[in-house]
Amino acid sequence: MVIEMQKDGYSQGLHLDGHSRGSLTIGNAMESIKNTENAVGSLSGTTISFLGPAYNAAAADDLLAYLQDRKSWANPNDGALTLQNQSNDIVGRLIGGNPATGGVTPKGSFWLWEALRVLGGTDTPHNCYSNGSEACQNLWKGSIGNESVPVPIYQIDMSTPETLLYKLERLRGK
To answer: Which residues are 18's β-sheet partners?
Structure first.
């Protein structure tokens, strides 16, 4: 779908949100677009937000920057991918290898229980992004409005252990 939208001229003003497996769809589509003729600049007006992503957000932002031709922009940060990743979301943290952008372990709980709840249930660290119930707000205490807030990737400390896999992949040329 992303590839078809790009071909149909949706590159100007398109915004994509990718949660969990949706981030894999977006990332894989960008990998495919990168290998097409005239890929540079083909997504010049596209912005992307990842929420609890199974795809690495830093790697996706590198692809997006290439496809946007961001290096030619006056302010390249304007097109940066944004990330929301709760501290106990094992999909975003372990599978995607992404750092946490916020979130807390609710009072009376512990991180392992919260991480296990991601495997099923409601109001878990993996499905409480954006506006949520009161139970979801408990997972984001201290954030603006007790909600997850999108953070541009360039503002995130990429020296955390979660990003080690990403750095190794870049060194290997992937």
So the answer is: 50
Rounded CA-CA distance 41/65 in Å is: 9
The gap between the terminal CA atoms of the chain, to the nearest Å, is 23
Rounded CA gap, 78 and 126, in Å? 27
Model confidence over 62-120: pLDDT tens digits?
A: 999 999 999 999 999 999 999 999 999 999 999 999 999 999 999 999 989 998 999 88
Amino acid at 93: R
Please tell me the distance from the alpha carbon of residue 27 to that of residue 95, in angstroms, as a whole number: 14
Stated as kind and residue range, the H or E segment containing 57 is: helix 57-68
Reduce the DSSP state of residue 50 to 3 states and report it. Answer: strand
Q: pTM of this prediction?
A: 0.86
> What CA–CA distance (Å, rounded) separates 136 from 126?
10
Give the SS3 label for residue 149. Answer: coil
Would you say how long the chain is, in residues?
Answer: 174
